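Action item from last week, closing it out:
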Amino acid sequence: MEIGIRELRDGLSAHLAQVRQGNTVTVTDHGRPIARIVPIDRPTRLEQLRAEGRVRPARRRKMPAPEPVPASGSVSDLVDEQRR
């Protein structure tokens, strides 16, 4: 079911009742989808893919970004310097 922002605001209780019944509500802004309201007990797409074995969690944690290198001047100057 697709509804506009104004329609959602004016009939929020009715639309949330639809979600409680298991329906998904897509919110549009000038006809373009911007949000989706889904029942809380329904698994997300990622959870579905994990359950199917099609994706798996990362084996290790993401490494933190390195510390910035102190430099003076603009990026263009630094790139120019490296090209010499």
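Closing note: The domain at 1-56 is CATH 3.40.1620.10 (YefM-like fold).
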